[in-house]
C-alpha cells in the first residue's frame, strides 16, 4: 500500500486550458463572477495520510467502493460560500433536524470519468451536468454557484484520485456531486445553510448483464413525475418514491418500471433512463422518437447527445414527441416497431426486450448485437467517451 504524507492545507489550482474553455457551451457563464460563488482558486487540499486498497479489477459493482478523497463546500446565508475543500473521504456530521433529511431539500448529479486512449482521463460534456445541477438548485431553493468553478474543483478532485479511474473499457469512475440543505431547524423554509459535496466511486456495468435486453413493467397506477413537479430535476425524492413500484416490477418478473403518465398512458421514462422508440410511424416514416422535455422528463445528457448525433446523421426522422401505450401496441401489432431502448450515463444504451402491460407481455423486436442503430449509437458515444474519436464533447481532466 502506498502511503502519502499529509501535506496539511495546501492551496493548489490548475486553471482550465484554452481548449477546455472552448469545450464549454456558449451559454456557460464562464466569467460571470456576479453569481456569488466559491472559486476554484481558493481550493484547499488536505491529502489523506493513508490510501485505501483498491478492489480487484472486475469487481466494481455500482457505487459501493469510494475513493480516498472528497470535495466539500459549505454555504450559509450570512457568509455565502466558503473556500472549497478537498479532504480525506469520510462521514458527514449533520444536525438531526437538518431539512434535507426531513423534507428532501437536496439534489444530485451523476457523470463519469473514463480512462481511454493515451491513458488520458476524460469527462463527457460535464458542463451539461453542471448546468442541470444549477437548474435543480434553483428549483430546490438551494444556493446558486458558478458551474465552471465547480467543474474545475471536480477536475482537481479526479486528478488527485486519478489512480482510481479503472483501466478498462467497461468500467469508469462515477462522480456524484450532491447539494443538500443543512438548515438545522424544523420549519419548512428556504435553507439558510447548505453543503455541496462530491464523492467518487468505481463502477462497472449498471445492469447484471449489460448486453441483454431488459424487461419493463408498465402500470399507470404509479406516477414518477407530473406537470409542474420536479421530474426534470435530479432530486432524491423522485428516486426514493419510485422504489416501491420498482420492487413491484421485480415481483412481476420485470427489471424496471416503464413510467406512464395521464389518461392516455403516455410513455415517459424507463426506470432511471430516458426512452427511445425506433419505428415506422403512423405516416410510414422511419423515426427515432423520444418524449419531449415537458417538465416530466429528466433532460438526460445521453438523450441530448443521441438526438444531436442522429440528427447530424440525417438518415431518418428524429423527433421529440408524445408517445402513448396505445400507439406502441398498435405499432407492435402492425410490426412497425424496430427497437426500443433506454439511455443514461450508467448504461449508455440499454435495449428493451419486453413490456408487461395490462396483463400482457409485449415482445419488443430486438436486433441485439446486430442492431445497426443501438450498437452504432453506443459505439459512437463510447468511442468519444474513451477518446477513440476526437470530439468537442470531450473534457480532458
Ligand atoms: C430519471 C432519469 N432519467 C434519465 C436519466 C439519464 O440521464 P443522463 O443521460 O444525463 O445520465 C437519468 C440519469 O440519472 C435519470 O435519473
From TrEMBL:
It catalyses: L-valine + 2-oxoglutarate = 3-methyl-2-oxobutanoate + L-glutamate; L-leucine + 2-oxoglutarate = 4-methyl-2-oxopentanoate + L-glutamate; L-isoleucine + 2-oxoglutarate = (S)-3-methyl-2-oxopentanoate + L-glutamate. GO terms for molecular function: branched-chain-amino-acid transaminase activity. Its cofactor is pyridoxal 5'-phosphate. Transmembrane segments: none annotated. Keywords: Amino-acid biosynthesis, Aminotransferase, Branched-chain amino acid biosynthesis, Pyridoxal phosphate, Transferase. PROSITE patterns: AA_TRANSFER_CLASS_4. GO terms for biological process: L-leucine biosynthetic process; L-valine biosynthetic process. It is an enzyme of class 2 (transferase). Pfam families: Aminotran_4 (PF01063). The keyword Transmembrane helix does not apply. It comes from the Eukaryota. The keyword Ribosomal protein does not apply. One of its GO terms (cellular component) is mitochondrion. Its EC number is 2.6.1.42. Belongs to the class-IV pyridoxal-phosphate-dependent aminotransferase family. This is Branched-chain-amino-acid aminotransferase. It comes from Solea senegalensis (Senegalese sole).
Amino acid at each position: 500500500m502506498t502511503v502519502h504524507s499529509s501535506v496539511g492545507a495546501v492551496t493548489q489550482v490548475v486553471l482550465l486550458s484554452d481548449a477546455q474553455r472552448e469545450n464549454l457551451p456558449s451559454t456557460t457563464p464562464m466569467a460571470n463572477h456576479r453569481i456569488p460563488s466559491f472559486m476554484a482558486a481558493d481550493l484547499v487540499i488536505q491529502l489523506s495520510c493513508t490510501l485505501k486498497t483498491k478492489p480487484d479489477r472486475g469487481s466494481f459493482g455500482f457505487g459501493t467502493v469510494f475513493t480516498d478523497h472528497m470535495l466539500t463546500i459549505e454555504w450559509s446565508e450570512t457568509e455565502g460560500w466558503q473556500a472549497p475543500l478537498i479532504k480525506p473521504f469520510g462521514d458527514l456530521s449533520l444536525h438531526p433536524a437538518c431539512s434535507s433529511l426531513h423534507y428532501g431539500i437536496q439534489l444530485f448529479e451523476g457523470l463519469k470519468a473514463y480512462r481511454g486512449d493515451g491513458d488520458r482521463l476524460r469527462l463527457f460534456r460535464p458542463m451539461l451536468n453542471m448546468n442541470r445541477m444549477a437548474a435543480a438548485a434553483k428549483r430546490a431553493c438551494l444556493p446558486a454557484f458558478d458551474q465552471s468553478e465547480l467543474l474545475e474543483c471536480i477536475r482537481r478532485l479526479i486528478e488527485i484520485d486519478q489512480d482510481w479511474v479503472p483501466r478498462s473499457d467497461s468500467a469508469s469512475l462515477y462522480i456524484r456531486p450532491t447539494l443538500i440543505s443543512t438548515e438545522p431547524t424544523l420549519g419548512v423554509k428556504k435553507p439558510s445553510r447548505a453543503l455541496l459535496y462530491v464523492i467518487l466511486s468505481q463502477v462497472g456495468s449498471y445492469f447484471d448483464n449489460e448486453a441483454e435486453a431488459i424487461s419493463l413493467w408498465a402500470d399507470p397506477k404509479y406516477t414518477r413525475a407530473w406537470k409542474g413537479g420536479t421530474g426534470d430535476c435530479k432530486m432524491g425524492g423522485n428516486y426514493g418514491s419510485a422504489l416501491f413500484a420498482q420492487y413491484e416490477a421485480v415481483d412481476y418478473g420485470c427489471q424496471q418500471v416503464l413510467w406512464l403518465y395521464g389518461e392516455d398512458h403516455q410513455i415517459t421514462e424507463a426506470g432511471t433512463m430516458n426512452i427511445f422508440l425506433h419505428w415506422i410511424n403512423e405516416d410510414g416514416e422511419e423515426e427515432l422518437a423520444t418524449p419531449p422535455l415537458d417538465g416530466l422528463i429528466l433532460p438526460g445528457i445521453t438523450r441530448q447527445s443521441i438526438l444531436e448525433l442522429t440528427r447530424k446523421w440525417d438518415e431518418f426522422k428524429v423527433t421529440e414527441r408524445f408517445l402513448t401505450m396505445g400507439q406502441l401496441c398498435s405499432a407492435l401489432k402492425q410490426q412497425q416497431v424496430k427497437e426500443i431502448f433506454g439511455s443514461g450515463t450508467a448504461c449508455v444504451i440499454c435495449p428493451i426486450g419486453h413490456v408487461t402491460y395490462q396483463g400482457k407481455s409485449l415482445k419488443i423486436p430486438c436486433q441485439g448485437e446486430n442492431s445497426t442503430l443501438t450498437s452504432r449509437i453506443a459505439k459512437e458515444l463510447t468511442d468519444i467517451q474513451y477518446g477513440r474519436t476526437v470530439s468537442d464533447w470531450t473534457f480532458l481532466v
